[in-house]
C-alpha cells in the first residue's frame, strides 16, 4: 500500500472513531467528549412527576395516589421474557413490604386485553397501569434512554429518584436498593417471610 493511502486510511479511521465516540455518547445520553456539545440534564427527571394513566378497569390513576410512599415503578410487557421472570420477585416484595410504605406500580407497555388475560392467570398484588406515549417518554426521562424492557425506577418517600435500571432486577439488587428506604423493623419482618 502506498504511503499516501496509509495516511488517508488512518485519518479516515480516526475521524470515524472520534465521530462515533461523540455522537454515540450523544445518542446514549452520556457526557459529551466535546464540552458544550449538548446539555441533556434538563430533560432528565430526578423526581417522580405528576402523571395519569388508566388501570385495567379503565379508571384514571394519578401518580400522587402513592405520595409519601417508597415507589417502585416497573415498566414491563407480557411479551417480554425478562419482565415475566422478575414479576414474582416484585409480587413477593410487595407482599412483604406493603405495611412498611413500599408501593410497587407496574406500567404495562402492552395492550390492555393482553395484560388482563395475563393477570387472570398470574395475579399481581399491586396496581398495573397501561402505558401510553407519554408514559414511554417518561421512562426515557427517568433514565431508560434505550427504551428497553424491563425498566425499573425507585423513588424515596419524598418522590426523589434514587435508582433506575434497564433490565431485570435480582432479589439482592432489589433488597440493596430498598434497604436504606425502608424502616429497619420492616426489613427484618420481610426477611423472615
Number of domains: 2
Structural class of the secondary structure composition?
A: alpha/beta
CATH topology category name of the largest domain: Glutaredoxin
Strand elements, count: 7
Distance between the amino and carboxyl termini: 70 Å
Question: What descriptors fit this protein?
Answer:
Glutaredoxin; 6 helices; 193 residues; alpha/beta; globular; TlpA family protein disulfide reductase; disordered C terminus; seven-stranded mixed sheet
Report what the structure shows.
With 193 residues, the protein is of the alpha/beta class. It folds into two domains: 39 residues; 149 residues, 3-Layer(aba) Sandwich (Glutaredoxin), CATH 3.40.30.10. The chain is built from six helices and seven strands, in the order αβββαβαβαββαα. A hairpin with a 5-residue loop joins strand 6 and strand 7. The C terminus is likely disordered. It comes from Thiorhodococcus fuscus. It is found in: Cell envelope. Keywords: Cytochrome c-type biogenesis, Redox-active center. This is TlpA family protein disulfide reductase.
